[in-house]
Amino acid sequence: MWTRFLTMSFWTRVAIVAGIDAIIDGVRLLASWLGGYHLSSAPQLLDHNLFHTIISQGIGYGLVGLMVAAFTINSNEIYTHALRGLDSQQRSAAIDAAIRGPAPADVYTRNAAIGVARRRLQCVRSWRTIWLVALCFDVLALGLTDGWQGFDLEGWACSVLVPGFAAAAWYVSKNAEQRFRLLSWPDSVGAAGVSASH
């Protein structure tokens, strides 16, 4: 999903991120209203500032979308270059092969899959490092406080999520390494059964 997102145009990425951000914010506000928490900070839908609130919220979502799209420009250019010259079916096959399944028999599709897999491996290694650092800070925070008793609900949730994301990043990075090695093997086209197991 993320790899396909990175192959989309700049403004498509902006729109998708802004929409997801708006949905998440809407769910959070709905949960606050239903739970009776932080009502004073939620937008008041019946006051005269409704239009101003909608505009300001929309600008905020747009800025988040622009930041993510700008941050992923380099990956988009690399993926676009790797997939250049392929039709839509070959592009889809190359992206799928970079993640799972057998290596493509078509040499152009396979070379594109290798380029996508190489960039994917670089990205997930970076995220693995980021989450490892975050995990170290998480452990340090536990040591400097009273453990779980010193955390509020949000702190407790973060301390649970960080190890989970770190483990997921490690797993995805190992999978990406296996995929890149598999696609790079000279005889990987004949290793369909092996690749499918990954």
Describe the structure.
With 198 residues, the chain is mostly helical. The chain folds into 2 domains: 71 residues, no CATH class; 117 residues, no CATH class. The protein contains 8 helices and no strands. Helix 6 runs antiparallel to helix 7. The longest helix has 38 residues. The chain is flat, with a radius of gyration of 22 Å. The C terminus is likely disordered.
List its traits.
single chain; 198 residues; mainly alpha; 2 domains; disordered C terminus
Question: Summed up, what is this model?
Answer:
The protein is mostly helical and 198 residues long. The chain is built from eight helices and no strands. 75% of the residues lie in helices and 0% in strands.
Q: How many separate structural domains?
A: 2
Strand content: under 5%
Q: What is the mean pLDDT? A: 81
Helix content: over 70%
C-alpha Rg (nearest Å): 22 Å
Give the ordered list of helices and strands.
Answer: HHHHHHHH
The main sheet comes to: none
Poorly predicted runs are 38-43, 190-198
Query: What is the number of helices?
Result: 8
Task: Give me the secondary-structure topology.
Layout lengths: L1 H5 L3 H26 L14 H22 L1 H10 L5 H10 L9 H38 L8 H32 L7 H5 L2
Helix pairs in contact: 2-3, 4-6, 5-6, 6-7
